[in-house]
Amino acid sequence: MTRSEILETAHLYITQDRAKTHGGAEDSFADIAAMWSIYLEHPVGPEDVCMMMVLLKAVRFKNSPQHVDNPIDAAGYAALAGEIASQRG
Asked: How high does pLDDT run on average in the chain?
């Protein structure tokens, strides 16, 4: 897969496929952040959830570099983190 194909696929995942399946990313990550904040006893924001998922995908990529879904998902999570952070001001 080329870099353009990876980014195009990530774009589709975060704007169509997964949004339909999992609901709005902002709401989902806010819910996850609330649960993680309780568990960690430390505030976590939705953009933090996105970046932690990027790190998860980085570990998975390290263990399975041939599995292209990991960089696709990492690109999508990074884009969502940037969008959420920019909306929060």
From this structure: 93
- Tens-place pLDDT, residues 23-41: 788 899 999 999 999 999 9
Structure tokens at 81: 């983190």
Q: How many CB atoms lie within 10 A of CB 7?
A: 16
pTM of the model: 0.88
CB 72 within 8 A of CB 10: yes
Domain count, the chain: 1
Range of the domain at 53: 3-88
- With CA atoms as reference, report the closest residue to 53 among 30, 29, 34: 29
